Amino acid sequence: MPSPCTLLFLFFFFSLCVSSPDLLLDQQESDHLYAVLSSLNPSVDWRSDYPDDLCTSGPHGVVCEPLGDSLRVVELSFGYVSDYSNNPPCHPSNASFSPSLSRFPFLSKLFFYRCFTNSSLVSLPSFLWSLGPQLQELVFEDNPAIAGPLSADIANLTGLRRLIISGSNLSGLIPQTIAALSQVQQIDLSGNRLTGPIPPAVGNLTELIVLDLSRNQLTGPLPPELGQLSKATKLDLSFNNISGEIPASLGELRGLEMFVLSNNSINGGLPLFLGRMQGLRDLHLGGNPLGGTLPDVWTQLAGLVSLDLAYTGLVGIIPASMARLRNLTYLSLDHNGLTGAIPSGLGGLPLIHDLDLSYNRLSGQVPFREEVVERLGPKLKLAGNDGLCLGSKMVGAGLVRVDVNGCISSNLAESLARDSSAVSSRGSRLGSDSWYGVALALLPAYLLTL
């Protein structure tokens, strides 16, 4: 026999299923919703197209829940994304914000995709910041006509979990008041024109998992307070004008999986504390004047999937321990000043499909097996290393497409050098009619037979 608790649950569930179809959207919210739809796309007669209840028979993108004796709007999504997310489309040149957006007291999500794209710039309206602590998601994606500063009044939205305003034209500073968003888990302000430093107060957002401030005009050093983001898994600050060294406090981000600082002005070399960030999967620091050498920390970073250190001013050798990166699929060390031989183990990385060592000062014979070169094809880039050469088997197999010449065997090189010295000491001619000149002329053909 079912327990009393089970019977009570079944009665409640049955009552909800029976009564919910009779619930309609609150009349005031219905009027406000028509006003919002008309402001975003005045070319549509929304009342005629959706004459029935907007919750039970409304457009995709309107989500309601039963609260009390009526349905209330809890989510609004605007802008056609795809046939699977067919939100109400915004007018391509005549969309605007309606003050009625602030008239939904239970609204938890507000989403706009490509709603503001024309040349007439529009600011984020002040009534957005009065939506209240119940708002958990505020998302603007790819709205290039949205301009102006990010208001300090964003601090009023204390319940935010996601703040995304990407692909717009926001300018000015990131307000210090952003620190009031104590529950926020994702901040994405990428692809704007934000300036000034990253506020140290961001470090107080201890629930933050994703921070993306890429493709802005941010300046100044990285605040050490970023090391307090203990739950962070993604930190993308690429394509800014950030300078200075990477703070040692960032070594405390043990759960960080994606660390992207590409194309800034970071210096001070690659820090040893990177070895403590053992959760890293993607490490992209290319396009910074880091300088220094490659630290021997790679045995501690076995989870790395992609590593970009191109154009960073690195010198010295490639550590053999990089061959321990067994999960690596992408490695870019190009356009540096690296010297010495290529570690043979790099060719044995089982998952590598893009390997760029071009334009360094590497030397010696390319240590990769023929099948590795064949598998990587054009994704193996070795050009611009005058000291590198291919072994005889690779030359004979026609694998010269990697822009590396064939190696001269050491015995042949020593013999030619010795004979050259002897002939020169007797004053003989070294012209094209001499035996030495003939040998030099025949040398390329000889290499193909090695």
Automatic annotation (TrEMBL):
InterPro entries: Leu-rich_rpt, Leu-rich_rpt_typical-subtyp, LRR_dom_sf, RLP29
SMART domains: LRR_TYP
Top-level lineage group: Eukaryota
Keyword Glycoprotein listed: yes
Keywords, sorted A to Z: Cell membrane, Glycoprotein, Leucine-rich repeat, Membrane, Repeat, Signal
Subcellular localization: Cell membrane
Gene Ontology CC terms: plasma membrane
Signal sequence, start to end: 1-19
SUPFAM superfamilies: L domain-like (SSF52058)
PANTHER family xrefs: LEUCINE-RICH REPEAT (LRR) FAMILY PROTEIN, LEUCINE-RICH REPEAT-CONTAINING N-TERMINAL PLANT-TYPE DOMAIN-CONTAINING PROTEIN
UniProt name for this protein: Leucine-rich repeat-containing N-terminal plant-type domain-containing protein
Species whose genome carries this gene: Nymphaea colorata (pocket water lily)
